[in-house]
Specification:
- There is one protein chain.
- By secondary structure, the protein is mostly helical.
- It has two domains: 29 residues; 31 residues.
- 68% of the residues lie in helices and 0% in strands.
- The protein contains two helices and no strands.
- 0% of the residues are buried.
Length: 72
């Protein structure tokens, strides 16, 4: 594995683990002893997260596709 791949792996693992940890903390908002929320609010939360995930996935795809070189 080259240095760029190692850096990507190291940073990606760290960032993804932080994101998973933060998403898991959303479960705490489900405690109705402390919080009250509507279905619309819940949908807005998960739609916003999904929208950002989809956006980032597309950015990865576009970046990978842009590596094609021009040839005549």
């Amino acid at each position: 594995m080259n240095a760029k791949q190692e850096n990507f792996k190291r940073i990606a693992e760290s960032r993804v683990n932080k994101i998973i940890e933060m998403i898991s903390k959303l479960e705490n908002l489900n405690n109705t002893s402390f919080y009250e929320y509507s279905d619309e609010q819940m949908d807005n939360i998960f739609n916003a997260i999904q929208k950002e995930l989809d956006k980032q996935k597309e950015m990865f795809k576009k970046n990978k596709n842009n590596k094609k070189r021009f040839e005549l």
